[in-house]
């Protein structure tokens, strides 16, 4: 069983993916680990697309049961047929943006307010994330996700609202019982 968990930044894809992997005893892969190269300033240096795709494919194909968290919409059409279930998370914009702010403060502390470089990175990231819901962000936005979801060849479970991790896992487990 291969499951893909996706949504906007700070919709909870990583948190849910990790919790679900632990619940099911599956391996968890996060697309950020493949998309971004390790660097002194995290999330600033992109890996070449062919390299990230090859790396994730090799890791994923080596595991019969796995969960991939994050977005694969720009990674090629082959991902449309890779999964047995896709879980799409959507939470209200204001809640998501508050989560994003809290996460950035947790990661970088006052640097997002006091360090000019970190502050600029924070502003660019939050501006990008704000455009998800109204589709003003290039690349990963709600319309792009909805189009991708309409093309996958497996069931899609859409979980909307600010639900708890336990509620989300219960919904997924119910869906999985109907798939198997």
pLDDT averaged residue by residue: 94
- Stretches where pLDDT falls below 50 for ≥5 residues? none
The N- to C-terminal Cα distance equals 9 Å
Q: Provide the helix percentage.
A: 40-55%
Structural class: alpha/beta
The total count of strands amounts to 5
Strand order in space, largest sheet: 2-3-1-4-5
- Backbone CA Rg: 16 Å
Biggest sheet details? 5 strands, parallel
Helix and strand run = EHEHHEEHHHHEH
What is the 3D form? globular
Number of helices: 8
Strand proportion, as a percent range, falls in 5-15%
Question: What features would you describe in this structure?
Answer:
The structure is a single chain. The chain is α/β, with parallel strands linked by helices and 180 residues long. The protein has helices at 13-24, 31-35, 49-61, 93-108, 111-114, 116-130, 142-151, 165-179, and strands spanning 2-7, 27-30, 66-69, 85-90, 156-160. The chain has a 5-stranded parallel beta sheet with strand order 2-3-1-4-5, with helices on both faces. The protein starts with a strand and ends with a helix.
Condensed summary:
With 180 residues, the protein is α/β, with parallel strands linked by helices. It has helices spanning 13-24, 31-35, 49-61, 93-108, 111-114, 116-130, 142-151, 165-179, and strands spanning 2-7, 27-30, 66-69, 85-90, 156-160.
Task: Break the fold down into its secondary structure elements and pairings.
Elements: E1 2-7, H1 13-24, E2 27-30, H2 31-35, H3 49-61, E3 66-69, E4 85-90, H4 93-108, H5 111-114, H6 116-130, H7 142-151, E5 156-160, H8 165-179
Parallel strand pairs: 1-3, 1-4, 2-3, 4-5
Helix pairs in contact: 4-6
């Amino acid at each position: 069983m291969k499951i893909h968990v996706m949504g906007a930044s700070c919709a909870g894809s990583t948190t849910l993916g990790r919790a679900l992997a632990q619940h099911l005893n599956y391996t968890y892969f996060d697309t950020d680990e493949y998309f971004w190269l390790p660097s002194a300033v995290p999330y600033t240096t992109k890996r070449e697309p062919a390299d990230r795709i090859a790396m994730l494919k090799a890791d994923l194909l080596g595991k019969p049961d796995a969960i991939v968290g994050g977005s694969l919409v720009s990674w090629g059409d082959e991902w449309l047929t890779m999964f047995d279930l896709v879980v799409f998370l959507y939470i209200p914009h204001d809640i998501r943006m508050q989560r994003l702010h809290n996460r950035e403060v947790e990661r970088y502390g006052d640097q997002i307010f006091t360090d000019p470089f970190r502050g600029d990175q924070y502003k660019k990231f939050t501006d990008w994330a704000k455009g998800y819901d109204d589709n003003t962000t290039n690349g990963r936005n709600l319309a792009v996700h909805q189009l991708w979801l309409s093309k996958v060849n497996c069931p899609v479970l859409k979980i909307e609202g600010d639900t708890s991790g336990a509620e989300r896992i219960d919904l997924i487990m119910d869906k999985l019982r109907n798939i198997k």
